[in-house]
Amino acid sequence: MAKASSSFVCQNCGAAFNRWQGKCEACGEWNTLVEEAGDSAVPVSIRAKRRGRTFKLESLAGKSNDAPRLPSGMAELDRVTGGGFVRGSVLLVGGDPGIGKSTLLTQATSLMAKAGHRTVYISGEEAIAQVRLRAERLGLAAAPVELAAETSVEDIIATLSEGATPKLIVIDSIQTMWTDTVESAPGTVTQVRASAQALIRFAKKSGAAIILVGHVTKDGQIAGPRVVEHMVDAVLSFEGEGSQQFRILRSVKNRFGPTDEIGVFEMTGLGLREVSNPSELFLSERDLGSPGTAVFAGIEGTRPVLVELQALVAPSTLGTPRRAVVGWDSARLSMVLAVLEAHCGVKLSGYDVYFNVAGGLRINEPAADLAAAAALVSSLANSPLPTDAVYFGEISLSGAVRPVAQTPARLKEAAKLGFGRAVLPEQTRGDAPSDAGLSLQSVGGLTSLVADIA
Ligand code: TYD
Ligand code: MG
Asked: What is the model's pTM?
């Protein structure tokens, strides 16, 4: 019989090697390779003998009688999943420890249970008493959620196969689960992958929707949930700065819905509160009239979001000036700085530049370029921007301000929040509705914006 071969698996990315080495060649992390037993549960000699079973092929056109989605009752969560949980699907919720994953899912399962759906919460990390304590704090102790503190995937599947199939099962967390079919220790990539596989199979067979919780760890000691990402139907990431109350749920991958939606929550003493109007929240602590701040009219998924961009440009004493960015792409900042320097005569090479997106939001839209440039120039010139203005537009390497999509939605949100004017690309001016309720100032090139501010 063939000897069960072991391999060295990177605990960060899941790449396998046949000998130990200090650095994972796949992801570049150091000291992440751990020896794990091979995960082939069925010996090759048996596998080879099994003949294929024939099955019926279906036509693409045809009726699918799958139940529609199951809304959680939390509008912000449903927005990110694309309208609720899909029957038989598996969703991974990842995030730093302590960010509020268990809180979010306790709230979601309680709401669904109260609506009459059978929901099960399996905690592999906390004892039942702890889970109950949290529910009590949240005022949800009376919800008919079924609880267990278990870690064996076989036991969980055997238990849940009996009786009515649960509509939703939460596994908190996938890193604590283990299955008999592989020999490695719980928490290793092989275990996480095999456990996830078994649970995914159960979800497809039974029709229950399963949510796997995954901790993201930077040191690579515990298997990152990354290895599970490509196996599941959707990946949501729960983000936020530890020191701030805002939490953002972002969809990273979604087989059944959009991937650019965000859900916004606020962590309070009574759990997570949904924030249905994020612009108000992100602008709530605005420092009116100080130089270096500009309001960006952005779009997150289908929803317009206004957010304050803050820049500080200060003379540098260093040979290589500092560039520090929070909430935006640092390469994008470098590009905007280079364009300002090359085409607008704004000399920034002797200055440190600090850039921040207020409220802990992360911006990925190129449309933020114009607002970022306005904040930078305003800080350098020590001249505040008009407090009632919003900015949006992409900047090209030539210094032109390029058009962006969804102008009407951006303007509508700005008008709704009491802004009086919008600075926007010349070519999108035509998209603006005549009753926008704002005065529009179009710019064709960055030079004219700089001339206006300085
Ligand atoms: P938790 O959901 O346990 O985080 P995770 O499962 O992602 O590790 O939340 C932990 C943090 O949330 C903890 O620091 C306390 C805070 N919290 C509140 O501020 N209010 C609450 O009502 C609850 C339940 C937790
Ligand atoms: Mg937890």
From this structure: 0.79
Alpha helices in 126-188 (DSSP H): 128-137, 153-161
Residue 350 annotated as part of some ligand binding site: no
Domain positions in the chain: 1-38, 75-276, 281-453
Token digits for 293?
């701040």
Does CATH number 3.90.226.10 belong to domain 75-276? no
Backbone angles phi, psi at 300, to 5 degrees: -115, 105
Q: What is the ipTM of this complex?
A: 0.95
Q: In 129-233, which ranges are E strands?
A: 146-148, 168-172, 209-215
Pocket test for ligand 1, best of 103, 110, 170, 174 (most atoms within 8 A of CB): 103
Residues 92-146: pLDDT tens digits? 998 888 899 999 999 999 999 999 999 999 999 999 999 999 999 999 989 999 9
Environment of ion ligand 2 (residues, CB < 5 A)? 102
Show the ligand 1 pocket: residues with CB < 6 angstroms: 95, 97-103, 134, 137-138, 267, 269-271
Q: CATH assignment of 281-453, given 3.30.365.10, 3.40.1030.10, 2.60.40.420, 3.30.230.10?
A: 3.30.230.10
- Cβ contacts of 171 within 8 Å, gap of 6 or more: 122, 124, 156, 177, 199, 210, 211, 212, 213
